[in-house]
Amino acid sequence: MTSIVFTKSRDVFSGIIRWATRSRVSHVGVGFEIDGVHVVAHAYGVGGVQISRRSRFLSGRKLVAEFVVEERVSLKNVVETLGDRYDYESIVFFVPVIVFRWFGRKFKKPWVSSDAAVCSELVCRLHTTAFFGLDPETVTPQDLLVRCQSRLPRA
After folding, report:
1. In which domain, by residue range, is 104 found?
2. Secondary structure, 3-state, the chain
3. Do 106 and 100 contact (CB within 8 A), yes or no?
4. Terminal-to-terminal C-alpha distance of the chain
5. Residues 6+ apart with CB under 8 A from 67
6. pTM here?
7. Which tens digit of pLDDT belongs to each residue from 30-89?
8. Which of 131, 149, 147 is nearest to 71 (CA)?
């Protein structure tokens, strides 16, 4: 089973993300199994794109929601992104994206990084069918949560 896993934590960065995106979630990953071991692929500030055991991924985080995705994640695609750095520059450009959204406007980031990602961008790229039509460069965990709530069954 492949799933989209939404979490939040008590750290300051999580709080800022939830406040800015007006969301109850701050982090998202793709859950799946490798040889019977439950893992989550995600992009995180420390270590960039990585695969963590599910128990480690959830350590210090609260599971807010999880949705089943029929589209199986391509392990090849996950492996190709492993080690990509966390896209700190993208976080800076999320500020105008979010402010523009508050006023019902769109803002396109001035650059795209092919070797870096934030968590929601990674999930959107790995599940192209489930999130068709969403821009990976400006998608937030909240955007993915709304899409999942409207289209996918809960795990």
Report:
1. 2-151
2. CEEEEEEEECCHHHHHHHHHHCCCCCEEEEEEEECCEEEEEEEECCCEEEEEEHHHHHCCEEEEEEEEECCCCCHHHHHHHCCCEECHHHHHHHHHHHHHHHCCCCCCCCCCCCCEECHHHHHHHHCCCCCCCCCCCCCCHHHHHHHHHHHCCEC
3. yes
4. 9
5. 3, 4, 148, 149, 152, 153, 154, 155
6. 0.86
7. 999 999 999 999 999 888 999 999 999 999 999 999 999 988 888 899 999 999 988 877
8. 131
φ, ψ of residue 33 in degrees (nearest 5): -115, 145
Split into its structural domains, the chain has a count of 1
What tens digit of pLDDT does each residue of 90-140 get?
Answer: 766 666 667 776 777 776 655 556 678 889 999 998 987 888 889 888 888
> Distances from the Cα of 38 to the Cαs of 6, 52, 83, in angstroms?
15, 9, 20
At 131, which CATH number? Answer: 3.90.1720.10
How far apart, in whole angstroms, are the C-alpha atoms of residue 63 and residue 57?
A: 10
